[in-house]
Records
---
Amino acid sequence: MKGPLFSIRMQASLHGRHLSGAEHLSTAEDLERLAAGMVKRALGHMRGRAEKIQLTIEEVATGQIDYGALPDLHTYLVDDYHQGRRAAAAILLKSGVSSLAIDGAMAAMASGAAPDGRSMRGAMLIDAKNGNRLEPDQARGVRVSRMDLTEQAQQELILGLQALGLDNAHVREALTLAAKVLTTPGIVAELCWSDDPGYTAGYVASAQQGYVRFPHLKPIGDERGGRAFFLASGEQDLSELIDYLQTKPMLFDRIGQLYRAQPWGEEL
């Protein structure tokens, strides 16, 4: 991307609840096109038509941007969300997250991690050892922001995902977000499944395992979902970690390996 870049972010709500979000790092020339696409997305969401749409555009200093590579993508086929969650737990254990922390995160996401029993707008921050929740606001959570792909990396990713039958906005955006999360000092792993009722897939991401996707991590029709970031115990300044997730600009100019789906096996 040439010239100054801008962070463009969209947040949409319905009946006072978060409905949809999207963001990009963009040149000035692309802002109008991206803004129109974000508005269209908010008005055509599967959970309803947005009542409030907020667009935020801010210039990003070129010297602040870090570059990196997307993690490798693996897809494991599971029979249902029960098997999917067992498989996700196994990957998290391999990544250094305790059973206590895994069980607590999954229970919170399945029942609604916010105090009112709904999905959080952002991610939970969870101690990877003792399972304690650390985010300052348990209704809002922590939202990861200011990350995108370079044009070349985006085209390579689209072509690679098309070959696997996986090219959609859910996968591209989640992979990019997970990539930034994995660059964050002090984060051990991430667990995510969508709150969109018609989208049952989710993933685990860690430095050791890469981005591991499962087609089923929740039942169809369930509007509860979210993200959990597992933190190494006592090894990070929480305010610095949150600031990095929310404000550090990241552009990913390389993609990882994209592997064909294979059946999940306990031996993996």
---
Amino acid sequence: MTPTHPPHDAEEDRFREECGVFGVWNHADAAALTALGLHALQHRGQEAAGIVTLAPGGVFHHHRGLGLVGDIFGDAKVIGALPGRAAVGHNRYATTGETALRNVQPLFADFAFGGFAVAHNGNLTNAATLRRELVRRGCLFQSSTDTEVLVHLIAISLYANVLDRLIDALRQVQGAYSLVALHQGGLIGVRDPLGVRPLVIGRLPHATAAPAWILASETCALDIVGAEFVRDVDPGEIVVIDDSGLRSIKPFEQQPRRFCIFEYIYFARPDSVVEGTGVYETRKRIGAELARESPVPADVVVPVPDSGVPAAMGYAAESGIPYELGIIRNHYVGRTFIEPTDQIRHLGVKLKHSANRATLNGRRVVLVDDSIVRGTTSRKIVEMVRNAGAAEVHMRISSPPTTHSCFYGIDTPSRRELLAAQHDVAEMARLIGADSLAFISLDGLYRALGRPGRDRAAPGFCDACFTGDYAIPLTDWPAEAAGRDPQAAS
């Protein structure tokens, strides 16, 4: 595995989601429930999906494929070939390793103690270093994912049982992760010690039998299967679910929480509840704070759909400026749409978004979006709104300027490609063609999350993409760990 981010499509100027994980214990339709859960988590990864089930007698079954959940598991015959009352599933967007069937999770291995399947959301920041050592020791890797490093660490552990082996392996890795794992004895869920990546516990009560237990990246996946939310898995906690119920183990030293702040801004689905806070209401509060910090005389507030919608609603409510759908999203454009020429490719933004001319013509427009990455999409959308007759276009962003790359499971470009890392706000406004541009301040973002501001000593969130404050060592990225951009001189 090369410790770099996968290449970006310049036309896909947005942070890529991480991955989604889902697990079921003690349900007759475990595979079908898992497919439904992965469907609810589709926003977290659209490249591939997989399910592994555990059938009576300790027999594991699996099916994996490239594409969307509905395409891979939409056939009843596929679900029928995945028997068992326990399952784990995974949606993938690659942050390490190329898109290939060999990298699709859950990964499965046959150990001395039996079969073991694991699905991973996040990124291990010392995976390349560990991989080199494991290869020197004779380990043979079948994929290019960082998750397989964990599998090999479990394999070579000298501890006797699966749980102790897993703990031994986790003590050697660095990074941000949530895991769901399945073995013959039970279902396991894990969050990294800082709690950067999310994981929740749900339960499906049965009238005459023990409940079915669910592990998932977000509460929206519990909702789709009718499960009740029990609680979040704590940072550094391992939950073990078997026929005796659920038990908790906390083998790691307690550390201050650093939950990913971008879950609230963009990644989590709006109807999810994250760390006890509703995402939809939080995004509206962010928009309201943005309106207080960066008001501007205007006639309409227009979201860039869909990610800018709740923040735009909050901005409009706070400012008293009418909220209008000035941009209409086409929901039927897939990522594989053929763009055969440069001229057609240049029009790509219009495949996904269309200007509502009647709403925009002659108006002073506040455009609200969640972030600016390279600025290519923002520039095209501003141009589209102007071409629809807008008198003025003012861009408002519901996150602070993104000045640093993420190494904890979110695919972001190098710092050289991040617009905010290379230009000040005035220059950015000029480059995207807006009359004005403003981002929510870092303190304003924290206020919207119920804090008085950012406490530098104990922020409570991972906000490294805005601050460069990397709370987890970047072992495989020494230049970034030292505060340098390794590509600056290239």
---
Amino acid sequence: MSEVRVRFAPSPTGYLHIGGARTALYNYLFAKATKGTFVLRIEDTDLERSTKEFEALQILDLKWLGLEYDEGPDKPGKYGPYRQSERLEIYQKYALQLIEQGKAFYCFCSEEELEAMKEKATREGRPPHYEGKWRNPEFFEEAAARLAAGEKPSIRFRAPNKPYVLNDHVRGRVVYPENMVGDFVIVRSSGLPVYNYCCVVDDVEMKITHVIRGEDHLSNTVRQLMIYEALSATPPEFAHVSLLIGQDRQKLSKRHGATAVVNYKEESYLPGAALNYLCLLGWSHPEEKDIFTKEELIPFFNLERFSKSPAIYDIEKFKWVNGQHLKLMNESELRNQTEKFIEKDHLYWAQSDEWKTNAFKLFKDSMLFFNDFARVVQENVFQIDESFDDKAKEILAMPTTKDLATHWNAELNLISSSDKFLSQANFQKIFDKIKTALQLKGKPLFMGTRLSLTGKDHGPELKDLIPLTPVDVMKKRCQKILSFSAQ
């Protein structure tokens, strides 16, 4: 097999969509797995909507994800330029070549004429294909005269009336029947080429060997196969991957959550986690792994493990994957990154280094994101909840819970005001004392103690949590239990 060359070709008309990022990822992985070349091509012929700002932002997002391309606008190779707006002369050259060979023709039809053709075909139950006079050789002289007079025609491709077959790596054998499309525009009257045309010209010129893209492009492929044939070029191999859909099985949109890569970057998702999750949306690891790094994945990646079924985007699974990648980080690095997300007025910063180290060890596994840590610490260590959930109310209803809160409140009040925290040893000593005094054991003892001291019915091991919790906070929690029981 010749050197693999793949491309990601976004339009700079908005932020990089996660669906586009997934396409870029698959192309990147295939290039790396085959020691090929990954090309970034900017499809900016939509001059009204394309901007340099969006191009720059999309490139930043690709680099944040770690999808470094080998050739592109800022990494020129021998097949540039890499912006379609800078390749107009190339498209014009090929269009004139197709006209000279009788495979394309100038069309001077007005919008009104085209609409009338469409309406007539619909009334007669026929496909609304182009039937204008300009496809007929007897009108070529008139076309040349109008062209010489300065009129601006479009250029239409003369679509062959025969079936086409695509052997797709994901979809399998796809048959496009004859007469599926009529003569279609390849260059607008403005001089700008259309997508299906310039896409093929670029792939031919840039020696692209494989095209990996979303299945929404499957309907475009028949036109592209026609153009490859007309240019006497061998088409690349195609892999049309499944579409992303929400859990309601509708096309992914903002109602399913953020759809732009930049949103996930702002929400402190890890780029490695984003790549991990996006890869799983339509592709499966041969060892059935859910968690892996980009580097671990490259040796296994191929075009044979794509699924035909739509990929369901699950934001909760995405969050879980992010949490798993946090666990893969070196503890020192994880703590350093996490502390960047703790507000300067958070009580965390007022504690000793030993306290902070112990708090990090206790709560780090509760994090899905860097900014979870400060919230989890606040909720478990410093916060006095305003109300109790249903499970806590069940514990409150136990007659022994009030007794436990009374005893704990009395014992905490005996602690010197200079002692802000209760050591693990002293906690165990008081616990054993109260256990003996009340003759309690099992669930009433442990659940009642937890609720009295933490205000919650679940959480970390008490022997680890209590030494981090200020005595004053535990007193207030006990008093809240007693106040609630008195109602």
---
Amino acid sequence: MTPEQSFSRWVRVALGIFILAFGYFVLADNYAPMTPQAQVQRYVVPVAPRVAGQVSRVWVGSNQPVAAGDPLFELDDSDYRLALERAELDLGLAETGLERQQAAVRVAESQLEQQLGQAQNLAAQTHSGLLSAEARLQEARQGERAAEVGLRQAENARAQARLALSRTRVRAEVAGRIGNLQLKEGIYAQAGGPLLALVSEQAWVTADLREKSLRHVTAGTPVGIVFDALPGEVFRGHVESIDSGVREGQQAADGQLAQPVNSDRWVRDAQRLRIQIGLEEPLPALATGAKATVQLFPTENGLFRTMARVQLWLVSQLRYLY
């Protein structure tokens, strides 16, 4: 075989391999899509005090697991205890004022009854006294209503003081793990300012795929997952949902005109959509954000299912290398 014939043969072989690879890529992208752009997601709850104060004690350490209701840290409660004591004193004064006004109402009612009894014999002389007694009774009742309002306000102030005092000890709202703890005793905490993160135990996997690859994918489509941290292992799951949009498609109602995207590229970047994946077996102890590769099985066709399984097996083995 001459060099020219050998070269021509290798060109035909390379061209055949390219055509086969291209055809495989097109079929796989439509009927056995895979993406390495997947990761573990968890709810991360920023923990912030609801009242201000100096941190007096920290009960937890970084990466420590906690249960719902466990104490996380405390604020100095001196000011809040004094506020509660002041509210209780004000409540006592309000109760005393109400009792005094109720006694005044009883006295005014008694005086009015006496005036009514006298009016039967001395109508002309006691008429003015009767009017005066009625006015004093009305005034006493108004004072009683005002005292009742003051009592309710004092009770509300005491309840608020008690609530503020209880909030000086911050507890975990959900079970999880403390993340990136930077909190130390002596720091002055502002109300509503996050001081640490609580990583929830509830986890799922998200994956980003091109729009075209999702043509045959619906909720319930089975998937296989390979985590970078666990090479050689394949986990089963299924598609729970496909996001309805991405940020680029969000239009702000700001009164401005649309600004079309200008591009001189002949082939533009494909838009990717995010899918939510639920695992059908316990999720291993992986960090939030752990990377994964997701293989979808959107068709019952045996050939495409075999292609997808082979792809996923190869990826699981390659994870030993990188």
